[in-house]
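Figure 6 in text form: structure in, sequence out.
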């Protein structure tokens, strides 16, 4: 698979392959033995057309049997049981839910037991968290001390409302997580060069983030539009929350710069399937 890295010299996720399926894993998160992560690519599924081929979403108009087969194949390759997946119900909120064994299969083998949840946390081994993407930002959280994990979806709305901080607060409350001990990763998502937004969006970022970081978050173009950096915004939120710089892995991979390998909403004008991020504690 040909991937265009944002920076050839910066740390990259590892590219893994099995049974014709390609996925990405962030090595920083694997410093904690028994905690695994995987981010899907388009490669290795059975879906066709705009969903070709590893579409992992039932809500994009694809044949549900193809989607289930994709989940089954992906899980087998990455090394987990697809019936233990718990899927988020993403609606651009900062709602975070602690999930457990009783939620396994939610959104895949049976209807979801909860709604409007963009982030999930757990400390139960064998519960596979899954969230969905096609340009929005995946956020991974690993607490190696309490052996707890979190996975959150953060588009521009989630980012301006600081989904990363909301997830960390919930992990503090439920597991006693200390942010200084967290390992964090920002997953494949749209880069600043590809992400043009209008002024009403950057205004909200200007109000939320301290002025000294504004120049790193967005700049104005002659056409009156802005280019917004969701990677840097989420990085700043991790720092603000007390996660040390050396414990944050940046994505280094843009969905929109790699439309053949990854699903991108912007690159396809919305005609696309979904990628998925998975994070779990091995049983
Ligand atoms: Zn890009």
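Output sequence:
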């Amino acid at each position: 698979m040909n991937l265009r890295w944002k920076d050839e010299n910066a740390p990259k996720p590892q590219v893994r392959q099995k049974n014709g399926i390609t996925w990405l894993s962030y090595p920083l998160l694997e410093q904690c033995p028994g905690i695994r992560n995987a981010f899907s690519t388009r490669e290795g599924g059975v879906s066709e057309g705009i969903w070709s081929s590893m579409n992992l979403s039932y809500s994009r108009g694809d044949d549900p049997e193809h989607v289930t087969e994709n989940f089954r194949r992906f899980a087998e390759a990455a090394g987990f049981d697809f019936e233990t997946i718990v899927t988020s119900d993403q609606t651009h909120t900062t709602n975070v839910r602690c999930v457990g064994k009783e939620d396994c299969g939610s959104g895949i083998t049976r209807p979801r037991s909860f709604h409007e949840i963009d982030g999930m946390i757990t400390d139960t081994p064998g519960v596979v968290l899954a969230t969905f993407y096609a340009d929005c930002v995946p956020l991974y959280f690993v607490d190696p001390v309490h052996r707890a994990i979190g996975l959150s979806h953060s588009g521009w709305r989630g980012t301006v409302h600081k989904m990363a901080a909301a997830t960390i607060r919930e992990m503090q409350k439920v597991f006693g997580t200390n942010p200084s001990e967290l390992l964090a990763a920002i997953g494949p998502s749209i880069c600043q060069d590809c992400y043009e937004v209008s002024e009403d969006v950057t205004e909200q970022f200007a109000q939320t983030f301290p002025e000294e970081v504004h120049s790193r978050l967005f700049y104005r173009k002659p056409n009156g539009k802005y280019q917004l950096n969701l990677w840097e915004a989420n990085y700043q939120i991790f720092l603000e929350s007390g996660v040390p710089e050396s414990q944050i892995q940046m994505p280094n991979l843009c969905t929109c710069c790699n439309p053949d390998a990854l699903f991108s909403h912007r690159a396809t004008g919305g005609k696309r399937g979904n990628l998925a991020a998975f994070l779990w504690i091995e049983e």
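Caption detail: DSSP finds seven helices and 15 strands in the chain.
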